[in-house]
Every structure is written in structure tokens, then in C-alpha cells.
Amino acid sequence: MNKTVKIGDRYKGVLGWFAGNMPVAGTELRYSDPFQLLVAVILSAQCTDVRVNLITPALFARYPDARSMAGASQEEIFGLIKSCSYPNNKARHLKGMAEMIVSRFGGRVPSERDELTQLPGVGRKTANVIASVVWNSPVIAVDTHVFRVAGRIGLIPGARNPLEAELRLTKYIPASQRPLAHHWLLLHGRYICTARKPACNRCGLREWCEYYRKSAGTIV
Questions:
Q1: How far is residue 166's CA from residue 141's CA, in Å, rounded to a whole number?
Q2: Of residues 3, 49, 125, 197, which has the active-site annotation?
């Protein structure tokens, strides 16, 4: 492929390919309710989903809901999550998050992004994950995988940070596809368009990918 693709055509092609080849996509974190998903997403920061899924069974068995976790000490939570990255900070965030859910939101995870981001350990990306996965809200969470893949393909030209990337993706991706689009791009980045060595020869998006267009002559 030698020609540059217009941005609108690129989105149409990429979204169409994902819809046809990955119609069902979702988080690989294991959870049974919104609170458990929130805990898992907080733990997943700079940590693999595989590791988080090894940690959460014992954690959820001990603290299955916000009230039980709010009553735990930070040290008790730390003991159950110490094999993840930054366990001290995450233990503090989990306890503070659980306490606020109980005291301010009646024990239930809030559904609005502005309310979610009031919780300790919950930034915009985490809030968007919860809003889109649990309530199918038309928002897009931009993590490192999404930022990398969208940048390589050419979906977010000039975006300097996750917020700018989120705004570009939101502009071009229909509301009905936004919750899925996060998982499409994330999973593509996790298994195909990897950070160190993207598997371009196994990628179905080459026709629309700016990275492939520029480097096709050097990819083996």
C-alpha cells in the first residue's frame, strides 16, 4: 500500500474490520459485579491482567464488597495484593475507594464519570473503563495499548497524550461502538500490535495502517 488514507476512510476501514473479525470483545479481568471490576482495574495499573486475575480470587473471597473492604486495614489488603506492582499505593487506594463508596455513595459504585473520578485511585481512564464496561456508556478508555495502536494506525495524528487521543477517537467513532472500540484496540495491542515488535504480517489492518504504509519495505 503506497497511498495515504483519509482519516474518515481509515476509521471506516478499521472499525469495519474489527466489527467483522472481532464482533465480541471485552475485558480479560475476572469479576462478578461493578465493585469487583473497579478493584481489578485499579490493580491492573502497570500490571498484567494475568497477574491481577491470580490476586483477586483470594481478595474477593475476603472482601467481596465495598463495606467489607472499607472495614479492612491497609496492611490486610496489602497482604493479599503484594505480588502486584506498587502494592502499598494500591492498598491505600483500595481502602480509601471502598470507604468513600460506603460513606458517599451508599455502598454502590457510581455510574457517572465525574463521580467515579472522586474515588481514590480512580483517574479518567479507570472511570471510562467502568462506565463503558458496566453501563455501556459511550466513552473510550485510553490506556497504553490503545494509545500506541491508535497512534500507529493513524487514528489520532498529533495527539500528545491520552486525553487528546480520547477526544480524537470520540470524535470519529460512533457512540454505539465506543465501548467495544476500547477493547478492540486494547486486545489488538496486547496480541498483535505489540510494543516491541508488532506482528504486521498477521495484522488485518494493514490496508489502513499508517505505520505499515511507512515501514512496509522493511517488515519481514
A1: 7
A2: 125
pTM exceeds 0.70, yes or no: yes
Q: Is 171 a catalytic residue?
A: no
Q: Based on the residue annotation, tell me whether 125 is a catalytic residue of this protein.
A: yes
Domains, the chain, in order of start with CATH, read: 7-25+140-215 (1.10.1670.10), 34-135 (1.10.340.30)
Give whole-number Cα distances, 200 to 20, 86, 147, 163, 212, in Å: 19, 33, 17, 27, 7
Q: What is the pLDDT of residues 84-139, one digit of tens each?
A: 999 999 999 999 999 999 999 999 999 999 999 999 999 999 999 999 999 999 99
CA 85 to the chain's CA centroid: 17
Of the listed 6, 90, 143, 214, which one is catalytic?
143
Q: Which residue reads 493479599 in cell numbers?
A: 80
Mean pLDDT of 27-31: 96
